[in-house]
Design brief:
About 65% of the residues lie in helices and about 0% in strands. The chain has helices spanning about 10-20, 25-30, 35-50, 65-85, 95-105, 110-115, 120-135, 140-145, 150-165, 175-185, 200-215, 220-230, 235-245, 250-280, 285-310. It is globular. It is mainly alpha-helical. The longest helix has about 30 residues, at about 250-280. Bound molecules: fe (ii) ion (2 copies). One fe (ii) ion (FE2) binds near residues 164, 230, 263, 264 and 267.
Length: about 325
């Protein structure tokens, strides 16, 4: 893993300081509050990455540097308040009983529909590269939540995570399956290789998932995000698999999506009826945050899809 290219004044300062082996980040802290857009999103993504696999050119010990944590908090506050500003809690709905219907009633833009019938090979390669930011650490942001739960919600979440992590078999581990699919498709299976391609919306999708996972107070949002994610995966995965087959992608890449057709049909039930239900029995005051996480997941995916379609000059939603 290597540091990406800067995208504005904050990432110029931050990446320069990280690269030079600095142990003082005061100058970075000074510019953080004014940062916005891709510059702020990339800076937060880099700071979050220090808690995952880190960077070859950054000392591991900086993960808990107090100034870097302070900069992270400034950027996270800004992200969370923007996400909350877009959210209105649905009235009179029960998360456990109504989430799946609510998800179905929302009519977001779908990249999988475009891939299914219309996308060309270059567009799909670009999508896989940008999505690798998420898929190559699939499930990791949710794992932060495990120690923050009561026993029933924890046991239920671990059932799902165990499956995502391959049920004891590294060759079934989902983010490894994606890496193998990338390799077979001639793509570098490392997310730093594609980071410079990622639009703001892709960075924010990843930042939001990590934000929810890493903050105990946001455990409800993390599990709401998980439920919405699983509830919008099975059918789109089928379309992705068929679109990739149409374009002659290798079995390893197609297989990643085929795996998710059945797995996520099970996971959506687990995430809503077992995990969210257990969380609400133990902590009923978290229902609004479940909705906040679910809304944010769909809202960010919709914005990401619009950006990618616009990048490809696709104006109308492909039916
Ligand atoms: Fe998965
Ligand atoms: Fe899943």
């Amino acid at each position: 893993m290597h540091l990406p290219l800067p995208r504005g004044p904050l990432t110029e300062e931050l990446l320069g300081a990280l690269r030079s082996g600095a142990d003082d980040f005061y100058a970075v802290l000074a510019v953080a509050p004014g940062a916005h857009g891709e510059d702020a999103a990339l800076a937060l993504w880099v700071l979050h990455e220090l808690h995952y696999r880190g960077f070859a050119d950054v000392p591991d010990d900086l993960e808990w540097d107090p100034q870097l944590v302070r900069i992270r908090r400034v950027l996270e506050h800004d992200l969370e308040s923007r996400l909350r500003g877009r959210f209105t809690a649905p009235e009179g709905l029960s998360f456990v009983d109504d989430l799946l219907g609510w998800v179905e009633s929302r009519d977001g833009v779908s990249l999988s529909r475009h891939v299914h019938r219309h996308a060309d090979r270059e567009q799909v390669l670009e999508l896989l590269r940008v999505r690798s930011l998420y898929h190559l650490k699939e499930s990791d942001p949710t794992t932060w939540v495990v120690p923050r739960l009561g026993v029933r919600a924890k046991a239920a979440l671990m059932e799902l995570q165990y499956d995502e992590y391959g049920a004891g078999d590294p060759n079934r581990l989902h983010h490894h399956l994606f890496a193998e699919g990338m390799r077979a498709s001639g793509l570098e299976p490392s997310y730093d290789a594609h980071l410079d391609l990622a639009p703001l919306e892709a960075l924010e999708q990843n930042n939001a998932a990590t934000l929810f996972g890493m903050h105990r107070r946001l455990r409800g949002a993390a599990l709401g995000h998980l439920a919405a994610f699983e509830a919008t995966s099975s059918l789109p995965s089928r379309r992705m698999a068929q679109g990739l087959e149409r374009l002659g992608f290798p079995d390893a890449m197609v297989g990643y999506f085929t795996e998710h057709v059945e797995a996520d049909a099970v996971h959506e039930q687990l995430a809503v009826r077992t995990i969210a239900a257990a969380l609400l029995e133990e902590e009923p005051e978290l229902e609004e945050d479940l909705w906040f996480g679910a809304f944010t997941c769909l809202d960010l995916e919709d914005r990401f899809a619009r950006t990618m379609l616009a990048r490809w000059g696709v104006e109308e939603q492909a039916a």
